[in-house]
Amino acid sequence: MIPSAISIEKETPETHRPSTFLRESDDVLTALSSSSSSVRARFEKMIRDAQDTVCEAIEAVDGGSHFKEDVWSRPGGGGGISRVLQDGAVWEKAGVNVSVVYGVMPPEAYRAAKASADNQMKPGPVPFFAAGISSVLHPKNPFAPTLHFNYRYFETDAPKDSPGAPRQWWFGGGTDLTPAYIFEEDVKHFHLAQKSACDKFDPTFYARFKKWCDDYFYIKHRGERRGLGGIFFDDLNDYDQEMLLSFATECANSVVPAYIPIIQKRKDMPFTDQHKAWQQLRRGRYVEFNLVYDRGTTFGLKTGGRIESILVSLPLTARWEYDHQPEEGSEEWKLLDACINPREWI
């Protein structure tokens, strides 16, 4: 258990959305300079705009259901907006959350947040600022793929036992597709959208971040990937900060055109109980990865974050069968083979 003295303060429900979750000190710095504080403000605006855009698209596809919204704040500064749509016509569960949080974290949470963190660092609490948007969209139809996307900006100040150490910052995130059945044209469309976003900034990004995605969403105890990939990056700070802010914005803006056309094609396809059972088994893999390996989930749990927001990525239902093996050559087998042996889709 994490001592409450070094966990993030528990959230307080709010009745309305504030114009910003930034502290007043950040607002002042933003007005006076174009320093990293203005990156905080512009990143917050970007993720809140993206949340609105994605939620509007999801509600339009569903044709009647609406998101439940919870707004919350923290005594030490920051807060968030959680939106969830459940049991709709198209969506089993769709969550789109934003958070802008200040706090301090223990060393184990710092290591969970940053893969390259120094394991030998002194055990002092680390002050941090984190802002991000995180979404998982689980459709009902087994031929319609699940989508996950997450984009975040992170800063840490010097640990309390290392005064004078420089502030560190980095960007992270990605968008990846997790179908139960493969439709080649869908996967190609999705990966082309990711490549297009990457190519606007660096021609090496897509290949690099596609491999990173395949490597990250790996269920080690199964020897397979969670899905069919996309892009993923983390701890990214070796480029100009303005460029990376623009890159994260481009990636977030590509979510709707990359994904919604696929859902429109697949949401009404007829399916059998066998198709649904296979979707449930793949959802079980989703749960396994998120609870065992996902760094965002680990960080949230280790810092006493808002549990409903942390676990919103989990589907309403999933299934585990003992020693289930799809028949070789079947459509289910083809999906599993692609998860075990990542492919180049474009």
What does this structure look like?
By secondary structure, the protein is α+β, with helices and mostly antiparallel strands. 40% of the residues lie in helices and 23% in strands. The protein contains eleven helices and ten strands. The strands form two sheets. An eight-stranded antiparallel β-sheet has the order 1-2-3-4-5-6-7-10. The protein has a two-stranded antiparallel ribbon with strand order 8-9. A hairpin with a 6-residue loop joins strand 5 and strand 6. Helix 1 packs across helix 2 and helix 3 runs antiparallel to helix 9. The longest helix has 27 residues. The chain is globular, with a radius of gyration of 20 Å. The protein starts with 11 loop residues before the first strand and ends in a 6-residue tail after the last helix.
